[in-house]
Amino acid sequence: MIKKYLISTLFLFSLFFAGNFVLAQNQNLNLENLPKKLLNIKVPGAPKGAIFSPDGKEIWVTSLSNKKQGVSVFDSITGKKITSFNLNNYPAVEVVFNKDGTRVYASQMETAKVFEIDAINKKALRSFKTGGNWTKVVELSPDGKKLYASNWISNNVSEIDLGTGKLIRKISTVKTPRGLYITKDGNFLYVAGFDKGQIQKINLITGVKKIIYSGGYAMRHFVVDEDKGVLFVSDMGRNAIYKVNLKDDSVIKFASTESHPNTIALSPDKKILYVSCRGHNFSSTNYYVPGPDWGTVELFDTETGKLLDVIIGGNQPTALAVSPDGKTMVFSDFLDSRLQVYQIPTYEQIKSTNGGRSQTYKSLIKKK
User: Fold this and answer.
1) Is residue 27 part of a domain?
2) Total domains in the fold of the chain
3) What is the CATH number of the domain that holds 18?
4) Measured between alpha carbons, how far is 222 from 241 in angstroms, rounded to an integer?
5) Which helix (H) or strand (E) holds 350?
6) Which tens digits make up the pLDDT trace of 247-278?
7) Are 137 and 150 in contact (CB under 8 A)?
């Protein structure tokens, strides 16, 4: 296993340097204007979700295949492991911070629970039963008083009162709900339906529900630019990113991506959309075996939809997060049990490369 990992790591380094050499030779570019790898961090197993602490000093990551270390915390500068949490001997799926950075909420699929963790003292405090089945994404209401959790198999979203820890209600949704977004006034909930590629809007006050889009295939994850009223969503099945206009709920295609886009993230200035793409599956029924190509992380200009750069990852990039200052980005290679941390130049620097490695990466992602 160690030998296999070393070979994989060496091969990825060769891809990185080969790609940069071709790029520099062909375009005479200043590589300082492109994202640069800082760290490889070994993770307990199958890193699924990741997030930076609000101060940017820590990276919190969930491990989908490790029952003893469901959530781990790493120093974002050194990559050194700070601690990990055993959440009742079950792995975790996704993780989210509250606004002041004092609490972390981690979901579990098998138990349909969400755990609350003291982010300062690094202690698990309590758990909430969602009442659903196969709990995945967790989001907090804008006022921080409620927690929402999507339940993949029971086709509903749980609303939990964080003051009492009690389940308020279960809101029925489109099939296989995953991504969630609560509007800043707390009145509406948007749900990404994976099974039929739908986007649903739910009025949390009146209970009125409306499917605003049905043209997708596997809607997965939301990120929002509230100032511009734009909601981005990844469609893993159609290899695309869509945009929802929050003023009228109209939906348009934003960009095409590499195979199996999943997690997406926005830079703090909202100028760059990051997309982790897993790459092609090993087969139509098995994605637990490395596929025929390396995954990628794509950087899109949010105004034009054009590629700013493409980073070649390992086997199935999945988790993805950008630091609060926008200077660092982390993504996971799910099947390699690894995080990669990159230094991110300014938007203007990246844009000056006229697409950066996006012009050369395709020749490097196919495994030999």
Assistant:
1) yes
2) 1
3) 2.130.10.10
4) 10
5) helix 347-351
6) 999 999 999 999 999 999 999 999 999 999 99
7) yes
Q: Domain limits at 281?
A: 1-33+257-368
Contact 298, 346 (CB under 8 A): no
Q: Are 365 and 62 in contact (CB under 8 A)?
A: no
Tokens of 336: 């390699």
Task: Judge whether 23 and 41 are in contact, CB under 8 Å.
Answer: no
Query: How far apart are alpha carbons 29 and 11 in whole angstroms?
Result: 24
Asked whether residue 155 is domain-assigned, the answer is no
* 334: in domain: yes
Helix (H) or strand (E) holding 310: strand 307-312
Burial class of residue 107 (count of CB atoms within 10 Å of its CB; 0-12, 13-18, 19+): buried
Phi/psi class of residue 56: alpha, beta or left (left: φ > 0; alpha: ψ in -120 to 50)? left
| Overall pTM > 0.90 | yes
The confidence score (pLDDT) of residue 24 equals 42
pLDDT of the residue at 29: 63
Q: Is 23 helix (H, G, I), strand (E, B) or coil?
A: helix
User: Kindly report the CA angle at 251 between 331 and 253, in degrees rounded to 5?
Assistant: 55
Mean predicted lDDT score pLDDT of the chain: 93
For the stretch 213-219, contacts whose Cβ atoms lie closer than 8 Å and that sit 24 or more positions apart, written own/partner, are: 213/242, 213/244, 213/251, 215/251, 216/240, 216/242, 218/194, 219/178, 219/179, 219/192, 219/193, 219/194
Token readout for 349 is: 């620097």
Taking alpha carbons only, the member of 114, 168, 111 closest to residue 139 is 114
Q: Are 34 and 350 in contact (CB under 8 A)?
A: yes
Q: What distances in angstroms separate CA 75 from CA 41, 229, 285, 307, 319, one per listed residue?
A: 10, 34, 36, 30, 17
Tokens standing for residue 346: 């300014």
119-144 tens-digit pLDDT = 999 999 999 999 999 999 999 999 99
Half-sphere exposure of 149 (CA within 13 A, CB side): 35
Beta-carbon contacts of 354 under 8 Å, excluding residues fewer than 6 positions away, are 27
Question: Is 200 inside any structural domain?
Answer: no
